[in-house]
Structure formats: structure tokens, C-alpha cells
Amino acid sequence: MTGVDSPQSLTHPRYWPSWAGVGLLRALSILPLPLLWVLGAALGEAISFFPSRARHTADVNLALCFPERSEAERRRLRRAMFRTLTQAILSIGISLWSSRSRLQRLVRFRGREYLDSVLATGQNAILLAPHFVVLEIAGLRLSQERPMVSMYKSPRNTVLDRVMRHSRSRFGGVMIERSSELLPLIRLLREGRPFYYLPDQEPGSASFVFAPFFGVPAATLTAPSRIARLAHAMVIPCYTRLLPFGRGYEVIMKPPLAEFPSADPVADATRLNSAIEEAVREMPEQYLWTYKRFKTRPGNAPSYYD
Fold this sequence. Notes:
- The chain is an alpha/beta fold.
- It has 12 helices and 9 strands.
- The protein is globular and about 50 Å long.
């Protein structure tokens, strides 16, 4: 390997701050999850009071998605989100380095029968994993049992990219860059590997349609229905909840989406967003409201976030 991706280049002094951050996450990963939960709650509560771009984005999203709630209610929800987000950040080392046995001990399932029944009949499966704060956990835990495929977007930080790619594939999972061609992914799905997919992303240059999310037109990828059609796969909503007081994680699965995909990409996108919205309403404080979900608007309208 050459360039910034070579092992030699990653020892350059410009990467030392990144390695220091990785070292801190590694040290935190050794701590008990209940302690990280308490530390994250206190730190997240403090962070939520300071003006920032992240807080502004969360306020905009919450106002768009919950107009029926009072401003005081939305502020409380924003504070709760920052607490769970900070708890997730402090405990990210658990997903990066935890042993097989520790993950098995920390993770429980609800609705696991939906995935098991699909796989038992020889059908292919796509797990839709929206942007909840601990979304990494389910894919890692499931990859311990059978080979999985995950799509990701490489972070700009080269050190973090190296660490995360190694972590996510350490149980045999295959990582596919978001901008890659679909053919290798379809081939892996047809081989029987479940696909762990983040559907609620800003589409960028990818194909999308506008579909309602909490009643707001949201640029929604058409890839999920296209992949499901090409791979003859059932689509199962899957999201992970950080349990109170550091008791672990709960991976929640819902029934496969009915009559999906269809011949109508807008209907498919609407069905997809409806499933995500249902999950968000179940635990709104754990959705990543700092993500600019409505960045792209119909008719190139001005950004909500400016």
C-alpha cells in the first residue's frame, strides 16, 4: 500500500492526535457500560446547553418533525438525545474492540424470529438500520452468527477509517463502500449474506425521490427497493436501543415490509420512511437528530439549516 493508506504514513506526527483519540476510546471501552452510561448522561446534559451547529440542527429537525409539541417539550427531547448520543460516543469502543463473549452478554433481541424465519426459508434479507445512536451494535452482533454485508461511507480521518474497517469486519463481515457498484453487493446477497443497510442518508449524487418523513418531504434513496428487487430479498426494519442504566443493548426487528418492492419508487420510499418513522416514535430520544435529514429540498429550496 502507498500514500496516506500505507502503514508507514499512519505513524506520521500529523496522525498522532487521531491515534490519541483512538487510544482514549480504547481505554474507555474497558470500563463497565453502567459507568459509561452515567458519565455520558452527565456530559451530554452539559453539552446540550451550549450553542453549537449540532444543537441547531437538532432543534430544526425536532421542530419539523414534532410541530405538535411545545418548545419546552422539544428542548427536553433534545437534551435527552444529547445524553444518549454522548453515552453512545463514550461507549463506541465497545463496538470497536469488545470480544465476542462481551457482545453476546450485552446484546438481547426482540423480534429476532422475523429474520430467522426469512433465512430459514432460504430467502435473502436486508436489514434496514436507521440512524439511531448505537446503530453499529446490531450488525456486529449478528455477524458473529453468519457472514454479513454492511455498506459504509469512509470517514475523512484516515486513522479512524482504518480502525473502523478493521473493527466492522473482525467477525467475518464484508464492508462495501457506499459509492461502490451494486453488482458485488447483489452477488453477496444472493449467496445468502444478510445486508445491514442505513437507508436514511442524504442521497448526494445517488438516485432518490421525495417522500414524507414525519410529514416533511425528505430526499429518500431508491436503492433499497432496487437492491431488494435484484437480490430477491425481504426487507426487515432493524434498530438498536441503548438500554437504561447501562444494562446493554436491545436489537429490535419488525415484520418484513409487505409488498416491497413495488413498481412505484415513490410508494416504496414512502413505505420505507413510514417504517423508520414508526421506529423513531418508539424511542425518539435515541434517533440522531443532529443529522441533516432534510438537507436536500424539492425545487432546490433554501436549506432549513442555514
